Amino acid sequence: GRNVHNCAAALFCHVGEGSIVTILAGVHYREHLIPRLEACGVQVCVPMKGLGIGEQLSWLSANTQGPDSV
Asked: What does the radius of gyration of the chain's CA atoms come to, in whole angstroms?
């Protein structure tokens, strides 16, 4: 809907055509956003696609740094 269009437009202003965007949000948050970004020439990476919540938390722990590690 309108929120997806606004979000896609805002992202595109910052990244532009040919950019790669990594989305860590769940399927319900990204399902309408991805086609809009791809239609603008943005490549979308969804590394946690298909993972359950426990697997997502494990992936995030293994692949991100917490605030204390800076």
From this structure: 14
Q: How many CB atoms lie within 10 A of CB 48?
A: 20
The 10s digit of each residue's pLDDT in 10-60 is: 777 788 889 999 999 888 888 988 998 898 899 999 999 999 999 999 999
Q: Which of 1, 65, 52 is nearest to 31 (CA)?
A: 1
Spatial separation of the C-alpha atoms in residues 63 and 17, rounded to whole Å: 26
